[in-house]
Amino acid sequence: MKLSQILFSQGFGARRECEGLIVSGHVKIGGQVHDDPFEELAPEGLVFTVRGETWPYHAKALIVMNKPQGVECSQKPKHHMSVYSLLPVPLRRRDLQSIGRLDEDTTGLLLFTDDGALIHRFTHPKKHLNKVYDVTCKHPVTPDQVERLLAGVKLIDDPATVQAAACEVTGELTLKLTLTEGKYHQVKRMLAAVGNRVEGLHRSAFGALTLPADLAPGQWRWLSGPEAVSP
Ligand code: URA
Asked: Which is the most buried residue in 142, 144, 155, 178, by most CB within 10 A?
């Protein structure tokens, strides 16, 4: 693949812009300037720098972020800043989408990709990918509430019954809830349905992937591929 095409595919702008970055000496590979936009390179495994910033080539992007509070999972947020503003420009240019959404006040593991088929695969209800939530409740969690969450509850305005795949009480006001679906405000609505109220919500796992402990709120990193989430 031509070097200019590689940059173009990774979100570094229009073809002319990519050629400009290359001919003006802003692109390095292995510490050496590569200033020929038409140089042929094998993209897989390629690591290059643009203006000193390191970029690994990814045919399709898959990113994990520790979503902070107070950001909306929308390209056009209404009340807060967009979670997309936490991603660098080349990733935004690649038209990354979040895989599902978290509420503005929910923190934790959020995935992004530019692979439409992967979004479909990871959000399809039949795939049954576990999503683990650390929930802080307003009222003490009772054994009856846990039993009902596991047995299945009816949400207001939704005829279907939803149940937790697992529910572990972790403190007087806290529990770890595992869901396989991703309905709108599902955790909050499930806790409301059993007579409690969510005061804090954090997603700690999605499929096989646990939120990396060293990923601070607002930070993101590349994942090696979909098998990191669903082997
Ligand atoms: N359930 C909710 O209620 N909110 C989230 O952000 C995620 C799951």
From this structure: 155
